[in-house]
Design brief:
The complex is a heterodimer of chains A (294) and B (79).
Chain A (H helix, E strand, L loop, with lengths): L11 E6 L5 H9 L4 E5 L2 E4 L2 E5 L5 H9 L4 H8 L3 H7 L4 E5 L10 H4 L4 E6 L2 H8 L21 H9 L8 H5 L5 H19 L8 E5 H6 L1 H12 L7 H7 L22 H17 L10
Parallel strand pairs in A: 1-5, 1-6, 2-5, 6-7
Antiparallel strand pairs in A: 3-4
Helix pairs in contact in A: 2-7, 6-9, 9-13
Chain B lengths: L2 H15 L21 H15 L14 H11 L1
Helix pairs in contact in B: 1-2
Classes of the chains: A alpha/beta (294), B mainly alpha (79).
């Protein structure tokens, strides 16, 4: 039994986003809270170092359940069946998993865990594309699509096999091989959020919030406070959390690995490709062409 | 299930995961039940199955490679 005497499933939460949007930083912060276990893609991270794997991978299931959404409920219920027991065994107030690969499951989470809460973490698609299209070889945290002729490491290939790409026999799948990495990553970003936004229709308004990475990076203390209130954390910040709030976790220490310049310096074709693939979702999320000319 | 087919799969998996994994590679084995069968060796398992059975596995079918039953199904579908 956890300290507050709540039933195990009351304290579950999930985070979903496209990746490279502050999820690791947020999961580290939440995991540093007393009586909270917050995983990042099923595992505990000590800053950027992966530690204990508490929950089974959803790496390949990410694409499998995107391609076959009707399979998502069974897969999620099966792969996350241990969560309630972990809350009890570890005497937790709150237990969560923040992962890019929660996106294809957003529409079924309320069926599996009716009282769970959801953090939808969004970031401007232009910054996402720039961040994931990297020259670092091999990329230790691969998130996006790279040039197709590159030879990938085994880890990169494994993750790529589960990454969202067009479903078979669709118009998008026909044109996919001809797309540039910029266009493919714009598609990846847009499709991830399209799936999440559509999935939110299954959620009561009171059980999810949108967290903008831009706000989270620029006003970390205030935004983190809002997240804590949403999750029902009524206890004061401990020293570990206070320390982490002063750090920027998982920010690449330099831009040396970025292939793309800042958006204002993108080639015309890259801009055109980006807006063609991601324009509709950018607008749905409140990111407009004439803003953030960075 | 054809016993011979399972033993070929088992042999291919042991070649990647090591002899110590032999007793864990049963017809019901999965990535989660075999400690050595992790994400870093996933692609090596895929390549070993492709070589042993002369098949090409697409990324769309990769999910089947997370269990022995899935691998047997994949081989059945491709041979």
């Amino acid at each position: 039994m956890n300290a507050s005497g709540t039933s195990p499933r009351q304290g579950l939460f999930f985070g979903a986003g496209a990746g490279r949007c502050g999820t690791m930083m947020l999961s580290n912060l939440l995991n540093a809270e007393d009586d909270v276990l917050c995983l990042h893609e099923g595992k505990v991270r000590d800053l950027e170092v992966a530690k204990t794997q508490w929950l089974p991978f959803l790496t390949l299931e990410n694409f499998q359940c995107y391609a076959n959404p009707e399979s998502a409920k069974d897969v999620f219920a099966n792969k996350r069946s241990d969560m309630s027991q972990i809350v009890v065994d570890q005497q937790l107030e709150c237990f969560g998993d923040i992962a890019y690969n929660n996106a294809p499951f957003v529409h079924v989470i309320p069926e599996v865990f009716p009282t769970a809460k959801l953090l939808v973490i969004v970031r401007d698609g232009r910054d996402f594309v720039r961040s994931v299209y990297t020259s670092q070889r091999p990329d230790p945290l691969p998130v996006g699509w790279l040039d197709q002729e590159l030879e990938l490491s085994d880890l990169e290939r494994y993750i790529a096999m589960g990454r969202l790409r067009p479903r078979k026999e669709t118009e998008d799948s026909e044109r996919w091989p001809q797309l540039t990495p910029v266009a493919q990553n714009a598609w990846l970003w847009a499709e991830t959020y399209r799936v999440i936004l559509d999935g939110l229709q299954s959620w009561p308004d009171s059980q999810y919030i949108i967290v903008r990475a831009e706000n989270f990076f620029d006003n970390t203390v205030e935004e983190y406070d809002r997240i804590r209130k949403f999750l029902g954390f009524s206890w004061p910040l401990n020293d570990s959390v206070r320390t982490l709030l002063t750090k920027r976790i998982n920010t690449r220490s330099s831009n040396n690995h970025y292939i793309l310049p800042k958006y204002k310096d993108w080639e015309h074709q890259d801009r055109q490709d980006f807006w063609s693939e991601a324009g509709e979702v950018m607008e749905r999320l409140g990111y407009f062409k004439d803003t953030l000319e960075r | 299930m054809e016993n011979g087919l399972f033993h070929r799969v088992q042999k291919a998996l042991i070649g990647v995961l090591g002899e110590q994994a032999r007793h864990k590679i049963t017809p019901k084995a999965t990535m989660e039940s075999v400690e050595e069968w992790d994400s870093l060796l996933f692609v090596q398992v895929m390549l070993a199955i492709e070589r042993e059975f002369s098949i090409k596995i697409s990324a769309d079918d990769a999910i089947e490679l997370t269990s022995v039953q899935g691998i047997l199904k994949l081989i059945g579908d491709n041979t």
